[in-house]
Design a protein that fits this description.
By secondary structure, the chain is of the alpha/beta class. The protein is 27% helix and 19% strand. The longest helix is centred in the C-terminal third of the chain and has 11 residues.
Length: 93
């Protein structure tokens, strides 16, 4: 069996956050603050069709707008979004 490269999971260079929001009722702002706290300096892509900007960054409306090569996607959205992500990036779909 071939070993998996876990670097994108354990030390991602880019992270997309589906459901990004500045709402205090959401976990996403805490996740973003935690990334900054631990010194994450890679690309961060907030995704939420409800907003044009989140955390001072342009907000994408769909995972389909992401560039190829994003290392890690964190989501808290509905299944449809997960299906879009899996069909585009996962080698296991």
């Amino acid at each position: 069996m071939r070993g998996m490269d876990l670097r994108p999971l354990l030390a991602p260079r880019s992270i997309a956050i589906v459901g990004a929001s500045e709402s205090p009722d959401s976990w996403a702002p805490e996740f973003e603050r935690s990334l900054r706290h631990v010194g994450f300096t890679g690309e961060l892509y907030p995704i939420n069709p409800k907003y044009e900007r989140v955390w001072g960054r342009p907000c994408l409306s769909s995972p389909l707008e992401l560039p190829r090569g994003v290392d890690l996607l964190v989501r808290s959205e509905e299944r449809r979004v997960g299906k879009e992500c899996r069909s585009r990036w996962s080698p296991y779909h």
